[in-house]
């Protein structure tokens, strides 16, 4: 099996795929990128926090015009995962307003974006409906 | 008039649309010269200049000076996303308020015709081997792979979030907001588009980012706008006609977005607008019920809805019902975007935050012609720059 790497650093593939945030040890605010100080309380100490892999769709849009190379239409959504908001695409669902709904329950899944010349696969996350 | 007030003495916007024969400096100079003439003053009177052109590189303020008059005054180049024009206005306002000068000029200009889809984070071609870059350590552009950075998509999510929270808003309602603004635009000769669309035409237009179809998106176009501000003390020395046409800036507020839980994944355009509105109403001693007209930042139809609520035009959570009541049509209780809004008037980014003030002034001066809101005495102009910045100006007719 070829080597796999996560598409972004905040996606961890093992032991099972999940997202990891930098959590402020003072106020609990969570950030997917690095911060020098907490945007909420200015604390400077952070610890890793696993994000729940199930949640519900708080908002979405179905994008028909996107950057070159991005297949359209696709569903972009804001997912609330046990109190933490996550941004991602919805997958394994027909991208139309009849099949996507506000409040819909979803869970994290992964897919291979592509391989580079060394054969390394980049694995990205998305969310799929919980059937 | 009372000591410390700052007034708009002259103001102008160019026709918005496609200006193939003019560059940004030409458009800025045209608006600036017209604003000076409108106020009955010249560059010799100006004590400060603030100008912005978001997509045009730096130094627009000095380029304007070289085009219309170099007097050595302080020149500020401002850049604050879609709030750039409002920020330039506020820089001049603060300079006068501080006592540094009596007159100042604010200019915003942009050329956007044919630019196409605006997005926050497009990147170049992906490399041949995966390399991590950016603040998320991504191996390729995240736009379209982890949600969307496109403006129609981001603001679609802003509107859909409101729909989820409060209900009552759907594709049809968002399209009806666009129907209103396009209808309003037919009375505005300076709008980029003056075409009335039926609801069916809007809903069946090309889908950009559900629920925003093309007609529900702000129109990329060229345009400039400029304003001359004056201190209260200086205004008293000017002609009665200048004093009569002067418009009082009862509040000038700029806010940025405070931390909110979800702001790292979806820009929060609500909290900073609510805060700016509260500050502006307190400073002006005016409530939302006193407003005769509102120009708010309808960069997309989905955005207009949430700002009814954010600006306190309706009760919390009741924006959909408020719109359905007809309140925001030009014959309603709180006319919103009688200019046609960004969806039809157009959105030359840095010009927008002055052009919406021009629209309100036009009505307060009783000079808005066919689209005049009769008896207008108080108005509000609002812009949001994603990132985020919110500018609100409350404007009042002269008592003379």
From TrEMBL, chain A:
Residues 14-46 form the ChsH2 rubredoxin-like zinc ribbon domain. Residues 51-109 form the ChsH2 C-terminal OB-fold domain. SUPFAM superfamilies: Nucleic acid-binding proteins. This is Unannotated protein. It comes from freshwater metagenome. The lineage of its organism: unclassified sequences, metagenomes, ecological metagenomes.
């Amino acid at each position: 099996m070829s080597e796999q790497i996560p598409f972004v650093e905040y996606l961890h593939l093992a032991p099972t795929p999940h997202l990891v945030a930098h959590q402020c040890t003072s106020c609990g605010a969570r950030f997917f990128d690095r911060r020098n100080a907490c945007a909420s309380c200015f604390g400077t100490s952070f610890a890793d926090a696993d994000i729940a892999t199930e949640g519900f769709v708080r908002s979405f849009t179905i994008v028909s015009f996107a950057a070159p190379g991005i297949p359209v239409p696709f569903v972009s959504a804001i997912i609330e995962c046990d109190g933490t908001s996550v941004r991602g695409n919805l997958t394994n669902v027909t991208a139309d307003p009849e099949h996507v709904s506000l409040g819909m329950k979803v869970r994290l899944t992964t897919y291979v974006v592509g391989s580079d010349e060394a054969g390394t696969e980049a694995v990205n996350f998305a969310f799929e409906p919980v059937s | 008039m009372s000591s410390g007030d700052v007034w708009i003495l002259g103001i102008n916007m160019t026709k918005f649309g496609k200006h193939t024969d003019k560059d940004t400096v030409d458009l800025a100079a045209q608006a600036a010269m017209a604003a000076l003439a409108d106020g009955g003053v010249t560059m010799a009177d100006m004590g400060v200049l603030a100008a912005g052109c978001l997509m045009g590189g730096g130094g627009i303020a000095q380029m304007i000076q070289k085009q219309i008059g170099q007097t050595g005054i302080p020149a500020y180049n401002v850049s604050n996303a879609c709030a750039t024009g409002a920020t330039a206005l506020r820089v001049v306002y603060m300079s006068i308020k501080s006592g540094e000068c009596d007159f100042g000029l604010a200019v915003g200009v942009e050329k956007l015709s044919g630019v196409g889809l605006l997005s926050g984070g497009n990147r170049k071609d992906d490399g041949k081997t995966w390399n991590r870059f950016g603040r998320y350590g991504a191996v390729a552009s995240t736009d379209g792979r982890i949600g969307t950075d496109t403006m129609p998509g981001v603001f679609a999510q802003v509107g859909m979030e409101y729909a989820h929270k409060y209900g009552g808003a759907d594709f049809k309602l968002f399209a009806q907001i666009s129907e209103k603004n396009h209808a309003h635009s037919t009375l505005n000769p300076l709008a980029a588009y003056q075409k009335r669309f039926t609801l069916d035409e809007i809903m069946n237009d090309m889908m950009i980012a559900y629920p925003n179809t093309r007609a529900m998106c702000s129109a990329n176009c060229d345009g400039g706008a400029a304003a001359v501000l004056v201190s209260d003390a200086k205004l008293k020395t000017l002609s009665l006609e200048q004093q009569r046409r002067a418009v009082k800036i009862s509040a000038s507020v700029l806010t940025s977005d405070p931390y909110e839980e979800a702001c790292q994944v979806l820009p929060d355009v609500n909290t900073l607008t609510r805060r700016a509105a509260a500050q502006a109403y307190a400073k002006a001693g005016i409530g939302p019920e006193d407003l005769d007209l509102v120009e708010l930042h309808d960069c997309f139809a989905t955005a207009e809805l949430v700002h009814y609520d954010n600006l306190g035009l309706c009760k919390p959570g009741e924006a959909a019902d408020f719109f359905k009541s007809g309140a925001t049509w030009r014959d309603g209780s709180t006319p919103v975007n009688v200019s046609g809004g960004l969806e039809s008037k157009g959105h030359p980014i840095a010009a927008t935050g002055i052009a919406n003030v021009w629209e309100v002034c036009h009505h307060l001066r009783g000079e808005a012609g066919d689209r005049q809101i009769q008896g207008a005495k108080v108005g509000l102009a609002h812009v949001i720059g994603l990132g985020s910045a919110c500018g609100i100006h409350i404007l009042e007719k002269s008592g003379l």
